[in-house]
Amino acid sequence: MEIKELVHKIHSCECELVLAITGGGTEAIGELLRYGGGSATLLEAIVPYSQSALDAFIGRKPEKYASARTARAMAMTAFQKAIMLQSPEQKRFEHLLGIGATCTLARNGERKERQHELHVAVQSLQNTTSYSILFLEKRDREHEEAIVSRSIINMIAISCHQDVVITDGTGLSSQERPQIKQVQAIEGISNMLLHEANSYNTLPSFVRISGQDRNTHHSHKIMFSGSFDPCHKNHLKMARIASRKYGLPVHFEISLLNVDKPPIDYISLEDRISSIKARYEPDFMGDIFVTNAPLFSEKAIIFPDSTFIVGADTMKRLFDPKYYRPGDNLYSLLEHFRTKGIDFLVFSRKGIHIEIPAEIEHIITIVSEDEYSDDGISSTQIRKLQQNK
Length: 389
Fold this sequence. Notes:
Blueprint: H1 3-12, E1 16-22, H2 27-34, E2 42-46, H3 51-58, H4 68-85, E3 96-104, E4 117-123, E5 127-134, H5 141-159, E6 179-184, E7 206-210, E8 221-225, H6 233-246, E9 250-255, H7 266-278, E10 285-291, H8 296-302, E11 306-311, H9 312-318, H10 330-340, E12 342-347, E13 364-366, H11 379-387
Parallel strand pairs: 1-2, 1-3, 8-9, 8-11, 9-10, 11-12, 12-13
Antiparallel strand pairs: 3-4, 4-5, 5-6, 7-10
């Protein structure tokens, strides 16, 4: 299908989108606007081209700038912007899209072994879609730019339910096969995306994903809140110690929303939940929960009368004013925890010294180094090892 016809088809559908591009492929923005009617589809186009601009856009420094993971973070941030930019009289969230594209393309003076690759992600209320391609043929920058631009347009068209083959018009060789993955929202999760991470106008909520449904048998609960990106042996060791200490199962909780980063996309969420399930041990593990509660003050509302397992790094952030609700201070937060019956079981982290202010000692229990000694393994290290395989 010719690009002009395809763009007209995109503009004829009901989709509205925010598009974020870095590394190359900005011709896609021009193509969407070249033939008229672009205002029906494009809410905003963003080009966070420098590393610092991209860091600011997604709220963190990515482990790798040209990666499927970074494209998904860009798409989720773009989707959140689309929610904010949609006209108040519409509010038809099911037609909104966030598009993220990041790539490494040919440039002068590059090293011979440098990989050229493209990653496009699409975030909607219903699903997360990822498209990745490693360029195998040698091409000049202009040719690669054209491939990237057309690939972005094709992904938009497919996401707008237009009949198009994903490699149509891209000029990819038969050996260059895109890796495509799509994950649908778990039932009850999608509405959490409609609330920004820093919005406190909505009551915290949760979805139980799986487990033994054992939390209803005990008034007191042991909650392990974390990103689990991925879950690893030290997480299990901490959970086992906590379960033995209190004689209760440990429930795992992942917040879909973050205070200073975009929400977790559905592909990443599935990966994190799968990493817990893969290591699931029913003798000390309970349920898995997904919440829209990035702050412990919010978790306390969902899970009252609970002991929360935290590492020393989380302990340092727990009473940082940056992570308070609007209007809270240390004493109102402590009173909130008191009325909700909340305390914390703190595990050491290698290289982090734990200092507990006197004001909060009454809700803190520190696990001794005789019971648990951290070996320094982290989810970040595991992700880097997986990338290098």
